[in-house]
Please model this.
Amino acid sequence: MRLVGFVLIVLSLTLSAAAEDGLRWKVEEGERLRVTASQASSTEAEIGGRTYESSLNVGVELNWQVRSVADDGTAAIEQRLSRLTMAAELPGSEPVRYDSSAQLREEPTAGVKAVAEEFRPLLGKATTLRLTPRGEILEDSPQPRTDRSDASLTVADVRQMLGRLLPPLPPDRIAAGEPWTDVQQTKTPHGGVRIEGRYTLRDAPQEGKPLEIIDATYTFHADSKAPGVALTLGEQNNTGTFYFDPRAGRLVRGEIRQSLKMQVRVEETQVEQRVSSTLRIEVSPGE
Model:
């Protein structure tokens, strides 16, 4: 049900207009969407009294086409990766700048060649995901990673990034300021991490500002440890802001800001890390 004819009345209520309608994704068969997502992160690590700094920026552009919509509103979406960018600065390595859409004007470095070769099999590759009306990405049957079994970015990696950037919508209609929660699991080279998210809806949108705003806070917990590795999470500050269009039935944009201190012990070596990252997503009509 669309928000038609009741806008003036609903704006005067404490309950959010989109919450009355369930605040749901409402895509249609054949609909096309363009999704851009990025993650920019910087890390400062102390090992043996020395400090090492690194940065990694990754961006993807995805084309979605809705193939079908089930009776419960869950959409089967064909996804293709149309562009990938990467910028990395790691201790002891030459900087890497890669853009799959750029024309090389000079001989690429060895690092850029390696990245291009690794990511090439993913470009244009069609995969399928299922998106529920609440914005949850469901697992389909296993799909091949890429034509290269050792590729560092896989379909699962892209899906995990989207899972972080698509906020779970409230299970039922909800009043502005009333929270709902969600738990996600993610894997790191140092072991599993459980992410507890707490979300709240801001006051009902004002006239001329039809987007619903969702605020989020996140708490990370070390959930499991890899063999021989001890992971301890310390001081952290993780927040997010998302803008949802209830009339279009989709997310418009969102941003997650993360700051986290952690301690990793591998056998007798202890590493203190401070990680800061920003994740962004935009969803717009496709061609």
